[in-house]
Amino acid sequence: MRVLLTGWASFLHGEATAGDVLSLRAAGTALTGAGIDHDVAWSPNFRPGGRHLPGAPPGDYTHVVFVCGPVHGPQLRALHERYAACRRIAVGVSVPDPGDPAVTGFHRVLPRDDGVTPDLSLAASVSAVPVLGVVLAPRQPEYRDAGRHDDVHAALTGWLARLDCARVPLDTRLAHEDWARCATPDQFVAAVSTMDVIVTTRLHGLVLGLKAGVPVLAVDPVAGGGKVTAQAAALSWPVVAAEDCANPGVLDARLEWCRSRAGRVPEPPSPSLAGLVDELAGSR
Predict the structure, then answer these.
(1) Is the model's pLDDT at 144 over the cut of 80?
(2) Which of 43, 80, 83, 90 shows the greatest Cβ crowding within 10 Å of its Cβ?
(3) How far is CA 233 from CA 1, 136, 197, 230, in A?
(4) Measured in Å, how far apart are the chain's first and last C-alpha atoms?
(5) How many alpha carbons fall within 13 Å on the CB side of residue 108?
(6) How many CB atoms lie within 10 A of CB 19?
(7) Nearest of 267, 196, 192 to residue 237 by alpha carbon
(8) How many CA atoms lie within 13 A of 130 on its CB side?
């Protein structure tokens, strides 16, 4: 017996959701535990270096198992045609139309939408990874030619994409009618406080991260240093220069520092408004 595990994450134009991949992981673990030889087919768009359906000849397998997601559409019908000589089983799936050839092409369907069967993703193990809140500055024309925002953000987001972490985009801009943004600064600071590290090129990403007690990997997008560097100096917090952002080793080392005991956030200083009060008092 040799099984090919498939799912929507196997198709070239399919979709790899967290639930799909965890369900495939759970199925693979179960087969390994039972001593059943198996491969997993991945979309080349999702895992370029993995096993893909064109590289999984039908003659190599006795069974094809389709895991998770809705059972419908031409991609599943094509799967039945390609692996017609294999016994085909669907498990942990939704069945919107039992008469669909995508459904009837299986020898056995073990659905999850019967009201009693938990989703397979619950059976998969997961690893703890850091959660990084990402706050990027818009282009700032006031810095003229010194602004390196495009280059810095390309380097920073490329580096972030290669990390094994959860990335959460955060925006300091507030809006009352846009559900995707915070409506008050209190909401924004509350969101920031749940992160392990804040990665930012914004002054207030730096300041409000430290205010929330979260270590900040601050990058100044202005060549030679702008307001992020100045504020970092005022708060005695390190900052990565725009010129150094293209070096992944620098970013790796700063992230490691942020997650270490050395990167613990001290109580931020309390700014004084005495100068403003004195100025206004003197003009009365």
Answers:
(1) no
(2) 90
(3) 65, 20, 19, 5
(4) 91
(5) 9
(6) 18
(7) 267
(8) 17
Give the CA distances from residue 254 to residues 94, 225, 244, 267, in Å, rounded to whole numbers and listed in that order.
45, 18, 11, 20
Residue 250 buriedness (CB in 10 A; 0-12 / 13-18 / 19+): middle
- Whole-number Å distance between alpha carbons of 224 and 144: 12
In this model, does residue 255 exceed pLDDT 80?
yes
Structure token pair of residue 32: 């390994």
Q: What single-letter amino acid sits at 15?
A: E
DSSP states along 58-78: GGG-SEEEEESSB--SHHHHH
